Amino acid sequence: MVKAIRVYEIGGPEVLKWEDVEIGDPKEGEVRVKNKAIGLNFVDTYFRKGVYKAATFPFTPGVEAVGVVTAVGPGLTGRQVGDVVACAGNPMGSYAEEQILPASKVISVPPSIDPIVAASVIVKGMTAQFLVRHCFKVEPGHTVLVHAAAGGVGSLLCQWANALGATVIGTVSTKEKAVQAKEDGAHHVILYKEEDFVARVNEITSGNGVHVVYDSVGKDTFEGSLACLKLRGYMVSFGQSSGIPDPVPLSAIATKSLFLTRPTLRNYAVTRDELLEIAGEVFANVTSGVLRVRVNHSYPLSQAAQAHADLEGRKTSGSVVLIP
Q: Which residues touch 199 (CB under 8 Å, ≥6 apart)?
């Protein structure tokens, strides 16, 4: 038996239960992994609240972890006991001391990267990668707007877009987070509780607007984000921490011939080659120093409910990890 977080019903952080579970032995094509660190992501709260539907109840949340292989399934080659591996995105179930994973879904972690750092960056970094390299290919001369610029993904987006030569505008909720966003490469930081971010973006861009908005906030920022875009700009809505945005009539994006997308990591890392390519670029950028990973908060896995409450209460910045 191992300990894990289980969810029997949708609701607030209180539905996260710390229990004994039986996980068994790995079958053909599987590995058993003893987790060293687990990344906390907003998507975990979406499944807990029912915004996204879990396939079964009860379920164990979590889409990001790094651990050590403790057993391999019969006939499996290419993996051995002692390998340090990461899981990112699929399948769900990382809020556990140990888990069974498809070998095709785990990624080798370079020995130069600490497991806690790797667990805090793999999903968030892969998300940042497909956002700036695929959804909208950021290049020198572009101006980008990043909401929640001090968050786990926002921090990495600011650094990555800056490294690609873009002018980065970030929105944050506090002066402390503004300092972090500046350090992470945001050229302009907007305190959205004190300023109208649409008016400030208009001022910063001399009325031209931005090429792309990376919006993980959702309901509270969506309409304003559309207003910040220049002609043929890209609205990349990749989260909804404030709630699901209201429906948008096509006429709202027709005025400026805007592009609107709601991407998810699973659709950009479909094949094994895509998974390795995206993860490889993330780890390379961490190793080279292009990306500085901020592991600002750590909780025991048994206190996942408190971690969820703090994340949703905007009491965190950077990455948050859970330690089994």
A: none
DSSP one-letter string for 304-322: HHHHHHHHHTT---BEEEE
| Residue 40 scores a pLDDT above 80 | yes
Cα–Cα distance, 106 to 87 (Å, whole number): 5
Spell out a b/e string for 6-16, using b for 16 or more CB atoms within 10 Å of the CB, else e: bbeeeeebebb
Structure tokens at 44: 């975990």
pTM (predicted TM-score) = 0.90
Indicate left, alpha or beta for 59 from its phi (over 0: left) and psi (-120 to 50: alpha).
Answer: beta
**Are the C-beta atoms of 234 and 210 separated by less than 8 Å?**
no
Residue listed under structure tokens 């409450």: 309
Q: What is the mean pLDDT of the chain?
A: 95
DSSP states along 219-233 = TTTHHHHHHHEEEEE
* Per-residue pLDDT at 76: 87
Residues 130, 169, 122, 134: what is their CA dihedral angle, to the nearest 10 degrees? Answer: 10
HEC-encoded secondary structure of 67-120: EEEEEECCCCCCCCCCCEEEEECCCCCCCECEEEEEHHHEEECCCCCCHHHHHH
pLDDT tens digits, one per residue of 41-54 = 989 999 999 988 99
Q: Is 278 helix (H, G, I), strand (E, B) or coil?
A: helix
Give 96-136 pLDDT, tens digit per residue. Answer: 999 999 999 999 999 999 999 999 999 999 999 999 999 99
Which tokens in the block code for residue 78?
A: 């290419």
Bridge-based pairing of strands 210-215 and 143-146 is parallel
Residue 82 Rama label (left phi>0; alpha psi -120 to 50; beta): left
Determine contact, residues 281/269, Cβ cutoff 8 Å. no
Instruction: Report how far Cα 40 is from the mean position of its chain's Cα atoms.
Output: 9
List the beta strands (DSSP E) in the chain: 2-7, 16-21, 30-39, 64-72, 84-88, 98-102, 106-108, 143-146, 167-172, 188-191, 210-215, 229-237, 259-261, 295-300, 319-323
